[in-house]
Amino acid sequence: MHIRGDHAELVVGGRLDVRSAADARTVLHSAVDDGVGDLVLDLSELDSWDATGLGVIMGVHRRAGRCGRRLVLRGVPPQMQRLLVATRLHRILAIEGGLAVESLPRV
Fold first, then answer.
1. CA 44 to CA 74: how far, in whole Å?
2. CA–CA separation, 65 and 46 (whole Å)
3. Three-state SS for 19?
4. What DSSP assignment string belongs to 36-90?
5. What's the pLDDT at 102?
6. Phi, psi of 20 (to 5 degrees)
7. Tell me: the pLDDT tens digits for 1-37?
8. Over the chain, what is the mean pLDDT?
9. What's the first-to-final CA gap in the chain, in angstroms?
């Protein structure tokens, strides 16, 4: 897993899973705490994730809200889009450009 960027926009790549969750959480929480305005999380380089990785994203979303910020997802991979729709998290998370829910296969 790698994360690069600043306190306004971060690119997450590789695997966001149980092995990388603690490191990802630390970096993402620091970005939330040290910045202002929207925090854009670009997931276009994300290869895979698990429930723990999704939990990290939701935790960052909650932390951003408590800090008066908004987490915005960009470049959400199609498989994650389907997962967000299946779990109805697409209704909670801000997703740049939205999701074409009607074009996603049902899971």
1. 7
2. 24
3. coil
4. -S-EEEEEEEEEEE-HHHHHHHHHHHHHHHHTT--EEEES--HHHHHHHHHTTGG
5. 53
6. -105, -5
7. 677 877 789 999 999 999 999 999 999 999 999 999 9
8. 90
9. 27
What SS3 class is residue 103? helix
Full 3-state SS string of 75-102:
CCCHHHHHHHHHCCHHHCCEECCCCCHH
Give the closest residue to 5 by CA, choosing from 38, 53, 51, 47: 38
Q: How far apart are CA 93 and CA 44, in angstroms?
A: 16
Alpha-carbon Rg for the chain in angstroms: 13
* pTM score over 0.90: no
What pLDDT, on a 0 to 100 scale, did the predictor assign at position 99?
72
